[in-house]
Design goal:
alpha+beta, Nuclear Transport Factor 2, Chain: A, six-stranded mixed sheet, about 20% helix, SnoaL-like domain-containing protein
């Protein structure tokens, strides 16, 4: 049911994801901190979706017991900073109809740039 809902939904909106997540969902996107439970997970996902223009379709899908792996790409088309980021999304249901554990395996650092740390005066001096 989870995969059918995902494929039938078309472009992924926040409401589509709400319909896929169990209230106690655990969401992790790249190397960012995990979001626990529905509302924090949707908030974190909304941050990602605000930085991505589209997903590049589903290249491949595997289902084993209560886990589903989806191979896709995230696209950001914003002039000179266009990006294509390979991504694998893993859903684990624990035998339930909705996802309990969702992981986006991708490098999201280009989407969430950090500013450089301030330089300390005198750093690197040897005299």
């Amino acid at each position: 049911m989870l995969i059918e809902t995902l494929f039938a939904a078309g472009p992924m909106s926040g409401e589509t994801w709400r319909g896929l997540f169990d209230p106690g969902v655990h969401l992790r996107i790249g190397n960012r901190r995990p979001a626990l439970c529905l509302e924090p997970a949707l908030k974190e996902l909304k941050r990602l979706l605000a930085r991505v223009d589209s997903f590049g379709g589903y290249r491949d899908v595997w289902e084993v017991r209560d886990a589903t792996w989806i191979e896709t790409e995230m696209h950001r088309d914003r002039g000179a900073s266009a990006l294509v980021i390979p991504c694998a999304i893993v859903f684990r249901t624990g035998g339930r109809p909705l996802a309990l554990d969702v992981r986006f395996y991708c490098d999201v650092s280009p989407l969430f740039p950090r500013s450089a740390p301030p330089r300390r005066s005198g750093a690197g001096r040897t005299n």
